[in-house]
Amino acid sequence: MKSNYEIYRTLLSRIAAFICLFFFFTTQSYWESKNEYISFSLFLAGIILVAIASLGRMWCSLYIAGYKDDILVTKGPYSLCRNPLYFFSMIGVAGIGFATETLTFPIAFAILFALYYPSVIKSEEKRLKQLFGIEFERYKSRVPAFFPKLSTFDEPEIYSVKPAVYRDHMFSALWFVWLVGILEVIEGFKEIGLLKALWTIY
Q: Taking a C-beta distance cutoff of 8 angstroms, is the pair 79, 95 a contact?
């Protein structure tokens, strides 16, 4: 059962997604008509970042799916940093921003991410400390919170995965890919005249 905080966080995320979709529908990229090289470079950067984020989130889900509150996961991506899912989400958010072929969206997304996720991470780590106590404190002392530290990487030869749970997580790990698809559909609607942009942004 979800906590009140998780329900609030989900609601806030959906509101933010709705606002973003509104601006996706009503804006167009300045670079698309003025400089095709910049426009293409921004989109390419976005696709690469989204690919990294999706693969990274699937990697994290391989380790965490079905074990979130049962054991303290410290192997694989969780040996690099304590919040790899959020790290890869940051990369994915940046990718979606660049996929709009603008600079405005990635800058705005970076600001929103920096304002929102520190409190999420703080709440998650408070919960983990309550669940795992000294074990989490030891983990916290050797592994950084957010940005990966390659020297702490630890990967087991064998790891037990719960296929049914991982399958659900796998689909959610790909939502950045779905968003790029939505952006392309919106762009196609604009090109054939079904949608009209109200603003041009850089």
A: no
